[in-house]
Structures are given as structure tokens and as C-alpha cells.
Amino acid sequence: MEIKxxxxxxxxxxxxxxxxSESADKDAIICDGAVRSGKTFCMSISFVFxxxxxxxxxxxxxxxxxxxxxxxxxxxxxxQTLKMLGFSVEERISKNYIDLSYNGIENRIYVFGGKDxxxxxxxxxMTLSGVLFDEVALMPRSFxxxxxxxCSVEGSKYWFNCNPExxxxxxxxxxxxxxxxxxALYLHFTMRDNPSLSKATIRRYESLYSGSFYxxxxxxxxxxxxxxxxxxxxxxxxxxxxxxxxxxxxxxxxYGTVNPASFGLWALKEEVWxxxxxxxxxxxxxxxxxxxxxxxxxxEKLIGKRxxxxxxxxxxxxxxxxxxxxxxxxxxxxxxxxxxxxxxxTGCALKEGRIKICDNCVDxxxxxxxxxxxxNGTDLPVKENDHAMDDIRYFVATILDGDDGFKVFxxxx
Length: 413
Prior knowledge:
Layout: H1 8-15, E1 28-33, H2 39-54, E2 59-64, H3 67-84, E3 88-92, E4 97-102, E5 105-113, H4 120-123, E6 130-134, H5 141-149, E7 157-162, H6 170-176, E8 184-189, H7 199-208, H8 211-217, E9 248-254, E10 261-269, E11 272-281, H9 283-286, H10 292-303, E12 310-313, H11 318-327, E13 332-334, H12 339-352, E14 355-357, H13 362-370, H14 387-400
Parallel strand pairs: 1-7, 1-8, 2-5, 2-6, 6-7, 9-12, 11-14, 12-13
Antiparallel strand pairs: 3-4, 4-5, 9-10, 10-11
């Protein structure tokens, strides 16, 4: 693992707690800003250095949106570096903690996921000397405040990092708008604060986003989303169905009985997934509703004689998922249903050309032209003309970029 020299802003993160720092008396540090700006890695290393300088035989916490994301984004790269620096690292993955030791000093870090309101109960009753939140803006307020309440040891500190969300977000209003009221050091990062990124890499990231997402993920601004969800999808964005053979097939499904049901058939060719066909059934338009078995018949007709690897389905469609399982013909996976992150991943996949929509998929094309952000100040699209949009999002978040899926474009340029 190669470590480049740190930028000036990264050095501030590494040293803010030191005795000769002007920020040494702060209770917290907040780092927000652009994606790939180098804030997460230097914060995690600084967190460990601080805990070994100030404490021994103490407990700490690192929190991600999920435990898996915390291990992937924080723990694994952090421990690789710590081992290089002479730390002893004992990972207890099944128990969600790691034990660190250096020069006879030992400390323990517990790993938590703050994915919903129920997560707050997981951290209740603990006594911590410090906590680091990775992507704090994706966590519910109840979980964050419960974790902060656990830091009752004298000298404990809080560490936050995140990419921007909408300007009415609770963390932005409570912490970032007025860090002095929380006795916190606030640092804003851009990609230029990450010395490991080349100019070419920065240009590539800049090309992946447009509109409000460009302002958030490239400029690091807390702005409201507005207008079309995928404004770059024009008539010229849709392609002719390529000739086979194809390497793999998958299906993504947004299931509805009263609302429309959208089934998309995906085929892999030369590291690109093509949406080669679809079924779209609107009960209101057709004047009748289908049963689970009737929808399953439509699924089999869509697939035909093809060998389908996986089918990912709206996780709320429990009865239809069970119908597919009961037939025993296909492997079915409940879809990852994080709307905003799924839209971000889908936009990147479309812009990078990792997925392409064939021009015979008329309902997808229609929805791309109509799918818009709500104007009520929240980060949600309008719940209309979104059924093909949802099944495409399920495919990207669960199969293409999912932790349990397979990635067909791992060596991104």
C-alpha cells in the first residue's frame, strides 16, 4: 500500500488534537466535502494515533451506515496501514470489534452500523472514550446522539466525516452550520486536498456527475436536488440491441399489483450490461390486476430459454419473492433499496457506459424523460413514473455494484 505525502488539510486532521495545536481544546472534528477528497483515511489514522496517545485499555467505536461498509471503508484500509507502522491488530469480525496494541498499550474498537432508527439500541449501555462516524449524514439522528451519549470518559472526542446531503439535513443544521456551538473544528475538503489523485482521475470523477450531484460530490456543497433525476439521458442515449452471444443474464423487478410492475432483462457483453427487453404491466391502464402466479408467468416468458444467473426484486414484495423461490427455477435476491445512493450509482453506471438501455425498452425511455426530483425540500424523487427507474436502480445497487453481486467493470479507468 503506497502512502503519498499528506496535504496541508490532511495534516490538520492528523494533528488537531495534539498539545501544541490551536484546536487541541476542541471536542470534535467535522470533515465534509467532495468524494475521493482524502478525508476518511487520514481521519481514521488520526483517530488511532489520538487514542494511543491519550488512553490505554479503553473502548472506542467506529460507526458506518452498515457494519459491512465500516469494515470495507474504514477498518480494512486502516489496519493495513497500522500493521505497516508496527501495530498489532487482532480482528474479531464475528464479534464486530478489533483489538489494537502498540508498545505495550492496548485499546479496543467496536464496529457499529447506523442504518435505521432501531440501530440506536445496539450501542446503548456502552462506555466509550471516543467515536468516529464514517458518512454520518447517512445515519439517523437517534443513533448518532445515542453514540455521543456513550462518550462519558474524561477527554473523549467525536470524529465526523461525510459527503454533503440536502441543506435541511439535521447534521448540517445542528453541527456544520454552527460548529463553534459544539466546540468542533470544521474542515471542508475538495479533491485537490487528496494528493493521491492525479489530474486525469479528478477529471474523470468530474465527468460522472451533473446538476445537483455535481455540486454535492465534486464541489462539496450542501444543495437541494431539483429538476430531472437523470438530465443527461437524451434520445441519443439509447442504443440498438446488440447481437449475441451474451455472457450472463439477470432480471431486475419493481413489483406492483395496484401500481405498475416493471421487469427488466439484462444481458452482459464485453463488460457492458444491456437492458435488452422488459415487461411493464400497469393494472390501471389495463383495467385488471394480476396475481403473483400471473406475474411469474410473465417473468418466465420474458426470460424464455435463457439461463438467468440472478433475479433481484423489490424487497417489500415478499409474496412475489416467495413465489419465485417456490418454483425453484431461479436464484432470487431482495434488492438493495437505498434510493439516493442507488440513484447516484445508477447515474455513474450510465455515464461510464457500464449499463446501456436498448431502444426497444419503451417504458424505461418514457420514464427517463419524466422522472423528476420532488420540490418539497427532501432528497426524494416524485413517486410517479418511477417503476422502471426503480428496477434499474435495483439492478445497479444489488447486482452491478452490490456487496454480494459480481462486478464486471472492476478495473475502472
